[in-house]
């Protein structure tokens, strides 16, 4: 049977470091590895999301695979509302998406991943009329101090991160159970206490980018308009102390203070793993 491949999927390139990706080979990889989840047309309605023959359907996955036609992406170095860079998409393929069914594609070659990025971009009209946003500037990380952590803690309260993420960062704030994503599916705020990795990276500068660009398609907003760069680093330092089982310089310094030691030991005693985008 001749399947009608979407007709706009023929051309397109990506540029990531030394790689130039091509949509042609990317398309072959897509229809081998990705469409079972992301769907034949890339609309996120693959069979793993809507299993055939089951009605009302029971998805195998807890978060709907990304819809490449609407092209709203979570992991971007670019401002909220804009398209990600080729490198952002490539990095997601390397990493996979923690706390979701999106695997890491580290087993493919770099060229394969660049080809896949080129192909994904042919699935949406958005890439025809628009280009990637300009990556936000991430200033060099200032020295870690106790004052920085404390100021970050104040910001967490003032900016009302706790309303979703919970006062202790467990993903259980008063709004947590009411949140839905752009597919009308329930979405849980990230639970800091159980984790070390994020959906969109692992490093302090990844963390900086997450709340300064927002997790588009979810209620997690961008704080770029309200948080100054030096404040953002304070927030990063504090958020690290909420990951109470992840040994970081921030956690070590925090636990060296009387206030921090008391808070962390309390968090560790009553820790439960909830949240993190899993319903
Ligand atoms: C087992 C199912 C599954 C397979 C197979 C899969 N994905 Fe995904 N993918 C997902 C899910 C689920 C998400 C959404 C995760 C989330 O929103 O937290 C996702 C998200 C993505 C994203 C969005 C990243 C962002 O910033 O929003 C990209 C890009 C992506 N996948 C590419 C691919 C490519 C390319 C392949 C094939 C090489 C692939 N996926 C195979 C399940 C899958
Ligand atoms: C309106 C609710 C809401 C508010 C307010 C909120 N968040 Fe979130 N946040 C979320 C949700 C929902 C997610 C999960 C998104 C997902 O899994 O795709 C999230 C995810 C995150 C993540 C993890 C993203 C990743 O890559 O895994 C970080 C870090 C984060 N939020 C930090 C913050 C900070 C810092 C603040 C305050 C400055 C804040 N959030 C305020 C709802 C919120």
What does this molecule look like?
- With 279 residues, the protein is an all-alpha fold.
- It has 2 domains: 13-129, Cytochrome Bc1 Complex, Chain D, domain 2; 146-267, Orthogonal Bundle (Cytochrome Bc1 Complex, Chain D, domain 2).
- 37% of the residues lie in helices and 3% in strands.
- It is built from 10 helices and 2 strands, in the order E-E-H-H-H-H-H-H-H-H-H-H.
- It has a two-stranded antiparallel ribbon with strand order 1-2.
- A hairpin with a 2-residue loop joins strand 1 (13-16) and strand 2 (19-22).
- It is globular, with a radius of gyration of 20 Å.
- One heme C is lined by residues 33-34, 36-38, 48, 61, 63, 65-66, 73-75, 89, 92-93, 97, 100-103, 105, 116, 120, 199, 277.
């Amino acid at each position: 049977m001749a399947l009608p491949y979407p007709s706009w999927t023929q051309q397109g390139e990506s540029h990531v470091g030394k790689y130039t990706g091509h949509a042609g080979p990317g398309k072959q990889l897509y229809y081998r590895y990705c469409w079972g989840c992301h769907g034949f047309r890339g609309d996120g309605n693959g069979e793993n999301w809507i299993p055939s023959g089951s009605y009302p359907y029971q998805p195998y996955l807890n978060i709907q695979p990304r819809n490449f036609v609407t092209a709203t992406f979570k992991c971007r170095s670019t401002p909220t509302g804009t398209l990600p860079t080729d490198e952002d998409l490539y990095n997601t393929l390397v990493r996979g998406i923690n706390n979701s069914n999106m695997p890491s594609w580290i087993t493919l070659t770099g060229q394969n991943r660049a080809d896949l990025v080129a192909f994904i971009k042919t699935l949406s009209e958005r890439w025809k009329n628009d280009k990637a946003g300009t990556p936000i500037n991430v200033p060099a990380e200032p020295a870690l101090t106790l004052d920085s952590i404390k100021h970050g803690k104040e910001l967490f309260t003032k900016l009302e991160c706790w309303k979703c993420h919970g006062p202790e960062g467990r993903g259980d704030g008063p709004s947590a159970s009411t949140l839905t994503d752009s597919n009308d599916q329930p979405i849980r705020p990230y639970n800091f206490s159980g984790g070390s990795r994020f959906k969109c990276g692992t490093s302090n500068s990844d963390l900086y980018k997450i709340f300064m660009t927002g997790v588009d398609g979810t209620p997690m907003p961008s704080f770029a308009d309200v948080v100054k760069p030096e404040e953002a680093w304070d927030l990063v330092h504090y958020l690290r102390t909420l990951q109470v089982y992840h040994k970081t310089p921030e956690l070590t310094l925090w636990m060296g203070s009387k206030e921090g030691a008391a808070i962390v030991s309390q968090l560790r005693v009553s820790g439960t793993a909830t949240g993190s985008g899993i319903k």
